[in-house]
Design brief:
Elements: E1 2-3, E2 20-21, E3 40-45, E4 55-63, E5 67-75, E6 77-79, E7 86-87, E8 93-99, E9 106-115, E10 121-131, E11 137-143, E12 149-155, E13 158-163, E14 167-172, H1 176-185, E15 194-215, E16 224-227, E17 232-235, E18 237-238, H2 249-262, E19 269-272, E20 277-280, E21 284-305, E22 308-320, E23 327-335
Parallel strand pairs: 1-16, 4-13, 14-22
Antiparallel strand pairs: 2-15, 3-11, 4-8, 5-7, 5-9, 6-8, 9-10, 10-11, 12-13, 15-21, 16-20, 17-19, 18-22, 21-22, 21-23
C-alpha cells in the first residue's frame, strides 16, 4: 500500500485586540474652540513660518467615528487631495496646501461625505481651511445635523475632526461592524487608536476540523492511505475572523492581556499528531476529521479613537491547547476528487 497526500491544513481564523496606544503625528493637547454653535465650529492656530512661502500646509486629521470621503475641493490651493480620497478614522491625515498671498486671506473648501463603519452615508462635512495676509492659518467647519462633530486645533498648524462630545457605542462580537473595527484599528500601527482586550473567562473548548485529506489517482489499482503522520497545524483565532500573528500589533495586544489577566501564555500556533489513517482506493478521496483542543478566552474589546469609544462584547480568542490531544476522529472516503470544498466537519449523510 502506498501513502498519498498526508494532511496538514492550517486552521484559518483570526484575532482580537488589547491595550496599545499609538502616537498621533506631532500633535499637542487639543485646544478646544470656544465658539461651537449649532453643529458648526471654527478654530485658529499657527502663524507666520519665518520667511513667507507661496503656500502653507494645513494637515487635517480624522479622529471621528466616520470614514471621511472627499467629495469635492475648491479654492486657492497649491496641492490638495483628489476627490474620492478616503481619510479613515485615526489613520494619518490629509495635507492641504493653501496659497499664501500677502494682501488677502485665501481659502480652500473641502466637502466630505461621512460614512459609518457599516458603509452607510450619515451626512457631510464642509471644512474651510484658510491662510490670512500675515500667514496665520485657521479652519472653520459645518456638519450635517445629528453627526455630532467639531474641528479642533491640535498644534503645529494641524487640525482634527472629532466627536463634539464623548460617544460610546456597544456591539456584539458577531456584528459585522466588529470585524471592521478590529481590522481597521487593532492590526495597524499607522493610526492613533488604542485597543484594549479585557479577559473575563477562560475555558477549554474544541473546534471540529478537517485534519487531513488526499486523492488517490486511478492507475495501477493499488490502494493508498491518508494519515496524520505530518501532523495538523492549528492557529490562534478570534470571533471577528481577524488575522493574528506573534510580533505584530494584534498578537502583542492579545498576548499581553492574557498574560496579565490569567498568567497564561498565548499559543499562536501548534502542531498536533495522532495515529490516524484511512485506506483510499484508486479514484477515491480520503478524509480524517477530528476535534482540535483549544483554550477560549472571552471578554470585551475596547477601541478608542478621539472622543469615540467602541466596546465589543463576547469577544473570544481561541488558542491551541498543546497539553490536550486531538479527539473525536471521523474517517471516510468518497469516490472521485470530492468534495472540492473540503468542509471542516463531516457531511451529515
Amino acid at each position: 500500500m502506498k501513502s498519498i497526500t498526508r494532511g496538514k491544513l492550517a486552521a484559518s481564523i483570526a484575532t482580537a485586540g488589547i491595550i496599545i496606544q499609538l502616537a498621533a503625528p506631532a500633535v499637542a493637547a487639543p485646544v478646544l474652540s470656544s465658539d461651537l454653535v449649532q453643529g458648526s465650529s471654527s478654530s485658529s492656530g499657527g502663524g507666520l513660518e519665518g520667511i513667507p512661502k507661496s503656500s502653507l500646509s494645513i494637515p487635517l486629521y480624522n479622529n471621528s467615528p466616520y470614514v471621511m470621503v472627499l467629495r469635492s475641493v475648491s479654492g486657492d490651493n497649491a496641492g490638495v487631495p483628489q476627490p474620492g480620497t478616503i481619510l479613515d478614522p485615526g489613520q494619518g491625515y490629509q495635507d492641504f496646501e493653501v496659497v499664501f498671498r500677502a494682501a488677502k486671506t485665501t481659502t480652500v473648501t473641502a466637502v466630505y461625505d461621512l460614512v459609518d463603519t457599516t458603509g452607510i452615508n450619515r451626512g457631510s462635512a464642509t471644512i474651510k481651511l484658510s491662510v490670512n495676509a500675515m500667514g496665520a492659518r485657521s479652519v472653520s467647519s459645518s456638519y450635517s445635523a445629528g453627526v455630532g462633530l467639531q474641528s479642533n486645533y491640535v498644534g503645529n498648524g494641524a487640525w482634527e475632526v472629532e466627536s463634539s462630545t464623548h460617544t460610546e457605542q456597544t456591539i456584539d462580537a458577531t456584528d459585522a461592524q466588529a470585524a471592521t473595527l478590529v481590522q481597521r484599528f487593532c492590526t495597524s500601527t499607522n493610526n492613533s487608536a488604542s485597543c484594549a482586550f479585557k479577559v473575563n473567562t477562560k475555558a477549554p473548548s474544541t473546534q471540529e476540523k478537517l485534519l487531513a485529506s488526499g486523492y488517490m489517482l486511478p492507475g495501477d489499482g493499488e490502494s493508498g492511505s491518508v494519515s496524520l503522520s505530518s501532523g495538523y497545524e492549528s492557529e490562534v483565532s478570534v470571533t471577528t475572523g481577524t488575522s493574528v500573528s506573534a510580533g505584530l500589533k494584534l498578537g502583542d495586544i492579545l498576548s499581553a492581556s492574557i498574560s496579565e489577566d490569567h498568567e497564561s501564555e498565548l499559543s499562536f500556533s501548534e502542531v498536533f499528531h495522532a495515529e490516524q489513517e484511512v485506506t483510499v482506493a484508486p479514484g477515491d478521496t480520503g478524509y480524517i476529521w477530528g476535534a482540535v483542543p483549544m483554550i477560549t478566552y472571552t471578554g470585551a474589546m475596547t477601541i478608542n479613537v478621539g472622543n469615540t469609544t467602541w466596546t465589543i462584547n463576547n469577544f473570544a480568542v481561541n488558542s491551541p491547547d498543546i497539553h490536550t490531544p486531538l479527539s473525536r476522529f471521523t474517517t471516510t472516503t468518497y469516490h472521485g476528487d470530492y468534495p472540492i470544498g473540503r468542509p471542516d466537519s463531516p457531511p451529515a449523510s
